Amino acid sequence: MSSNRPYLLRAIHDWINDNGLTPYLLVEANAPGVRVPPASIKDGRVVLSVAARAVAHLEIGLDMVSFMARFGGVSHSIEVPVSAVLAIYAQENGQGMMFAAEDSPQPEPPAPEEPPARPRLRVVK
Question: Domain 5-98 class?
């Protein structure tokens, strides 16, 4: 199955907006395909407001989140692969959703345990 992350991003974004709050994205800035102004990156991450009043042409697609935003009065085209989004939350109360890294390996199921050896009785004389 395809990733549910883009669907959850859209749903949580709508939910935050419907409640009159400000949606923010936490993004892994060093992930391949992330295009944000370098000055906005702190500790390898960037926080982006995706409120309707802060961005233009917001598109949350299956593979990419893209929009136009102003940083320091200069308009920038922002592109973030959906897999680089670590969280979406409301600025005012922190409610939202965090996501696990998609490229992390899934834990392997534990190997089936062998049944313990059957006890054996010996005749001792």
Answer: mainly beta
From edge to edge, which strands make up the β-sheet containing 55-60? 55-60, 64-71, 74-81
Choose among 32, 106, 97, 24: nearest CA to 64. 32
Lowest mean pLDDT among 17-31, 68-82, 95-109: 95-109
- The helix/strand/coil state of 39 is helix
DSSP β-bridge partners for residue 49: 24
Residue 44 phi, psi (nearest 5)? 80, 5
Q: What is the pLDDT of residue 104?
A: 45
Q: What is the pLDDT of residue 43?
A: 93
Q: Where are the domains of the chain?
A: 5-98
Structure tokens that stand for 123 in this block: 């005749």
Indicate the pTM of the whole model: 0.77
Per-residue pLDDT at 46: 95
Cα separation, 84 vs 106, in Å, equals 17
Q: How many CB atoms lie within 10 A of CB 50?
A: 22
Confirm if 96 and 89 have CB atoms less than 8 A apart. yes
